[in-house]
Amino acid sequence: MVTTPRYGKAISLTCVLTYLALFLFSCSGQDGPQDKAQHDSKTGVAADSSATSNTGVSATDTASARPIEVEPESMAMSYAVKAGDVFTYRITERDQIVEGSKGIEGLKVYYYTKRITSVIPDSQITFTLRFNRIVVTSTAMLPDSTGKPVARTIRYNSADTNDRKNPNFAQYSVLIGHEVVMVITPQGKVLDIRNVEPIADQLIKVMERDSVSAEERRFITGSIATNTYGMVHVQEFQIYPQKKLDSTRSWTNTLPAPLLGIFPTENVVTYHIDKVLDMKGRRVADISGSLESKVLDRQAKNQYGTITLKSGGITGSSKHLVDLEKGFTVLKKSSLLIDAEVSTLRNDNKKTETTKQKTTTDFIVELL
Questions:
Q1: Bridge-partner residues for 366, per DSSP?
Q2: What are the tens digits of pLDDT across the range 239-273?
Q3: What are phi and psi of 206, to 5 degrees?
Q4: C-alpha dist (Å) from residue 66 to 29, 34, 56, 167, 221
Q5: How far does Cα 255 stand from its chain's mean position?
Q6: Distance CA 216, CA 229 (A)
Q7: Residue 89: pLDDT above 90?
Q8: What CA–CA distance (Å, rounded) separates 341 from 98?
Q9: In the chain, which end has fewer C-beta atoms inside a 10 angstrom radius, N or C?
Q10: For 179-237, what is each residue's pLDDT tens digit?
Q11: What gap in Å lies between CA 311 and CA 343, rounded to an integer?
Q12: In the predicted structure, residue 36 carries a pLDDT above the cut 80
């Protein structure tokens, strides 16, 4: 998070992505993922073998996939998993936020397992989600006492006992090994997230607060449910069309989302099935996505002054491999760029200040 006093608020990357991720988290087509050795050498994270998927395919099978002909009428896409299905994923997130001489680069790697526990056809799907391992690296370029930018790096690995005991990383450590129950529709809409209260209680205990009101406890529980488990679901999932596809093999989704949390913005994502692949006997759709963003109002006011968006916006693209029979993600890759130049006419001294902020985020979701 880069704090910008001129805006009178902290501009949170996660906040923006929460709105956009529904449409932009998608996966690589023919290029396929790196093999595990290459991936691990770049992230410093070894694959977690505590659980594996029982789907018969994984992200590493993309190299041997071959195109096949499939009629659009047979592509009634939805999440059609069955009780007993197990999916283990790795999500890799890379962030870069630059604002003047300040900046943050981050890498987060999450390993988690989903177990489908019950399915009500055409109604809802219930599953458990458990984080097996989390690795985080964050490097911030911040000015020292002389104004010179200095790199400060923080690292966390849930496999390290010392890191797990460090209260500064409690927001990650409390997640490991705990099973949360999620209920969604076949189209991917989240209906309920349960069993989050024990995680919130553990986090509150680590915070060593003398007392926490019922309202604060509900807020903490809701934040964990939405910003952690809800976001992981969003990153993994493909939002499916509400109707059967026509000959264009395309559909769109529209979402209003504020740029930098300030300026009302309409975002339209267009999806297209580029081809269908045979992957170890399973039909897998190769889906591309592109984001078009339109800022609806380039001026806003708050207690600090009048804020004007001089230039900038949001752009994004994605590729996604999804199993056509069951609707689960095999591989996703997405890129999102937020680039903005903002001026603020301050209320206190009537002076205008200008700042630029550029945020780049890349996601890879891999079925293991």
A1: 90, 331
A2: 778 777 888 888 888 877 778 778 888 888 899 99
A3: -65, -35
A4: 11, 18, 16, 49, 45
A5: 16
A6: 19
A7: yes
A8: 12
A9: N
A10: 999 999 998 889 999 999 999 999 999 887 767 888 999 999 999 999 999 989 988 98
A11: 10
A12: no
CB 27 within 8 A of CB 331: yes
- DSSP lists the bridge partners of residue 137 as 107, 155
Report how far residue 368's alpha carbon sits from residue 353's, in angstroms, rounded to the nearest whole number.
48
Among residues 368, 275, 356, which one has the least CA distance to residue 2? 356
Q: What is the pLDDT of residues 304-361, one digit of tens each?
A: 899 999 988 888 999 999 999 899 999 999 999 988 898 999 988 889 988 888 999 9
Q: How far is CA 80 from the centre of its chain?
A: 22
Q: What tokens were used for 226? A: 């939405």
The rounded mean pLDDT for the chain is 83
Which residues have C-beta within 8 Å of that of residue 310, sequence separation ≥ 6? 341, 342, 343, 354
Rounded percentage of the chain residues whose pLDDT exceeds 70:
84
* SS3 per-residue string spanning the chain: CEEEHHHCEEECHHHHHHHHHHHHCCCCCCCCCCCHHHHHHHHCCCCCCCCCCCCCCCHHHHHHCEEECCCHHHCCCCCCCCCCCEEEEEEEEEEEEEECCEEEEEEEEEEEEEEEEEEECCCEEEEEEEEEEEEEEEEEEEECCCCCEEEEEEEEECCCHHHHHCHHHHHHHCCECCEEEEEECCCCCEEEEECCHHHHHHHHHHHCCCCCCHHHHHHHHHHHHHHHHHHHHHHHCCCCCCCCCCCCCEEEEEEECCECCCECEEEEEEEEEEEEEEECCEEEEEEEEEEEEEECCCEEEECCEEEEEEEEEEEEEEEEEEECCCCCEEEEEEEEEEEEEEEEEECCCCCEEEEEEEEEEEEEEEEC
> Which residue is listed with tokens 């890498």?
107
The tokens for 216 are 């604060």
The whole-angstrom separation of Cα 270 and Cα 250 is 7
pTM equals 0.80
What pLDDT, on the 0 to 100 scale, is given for residue 10? 32
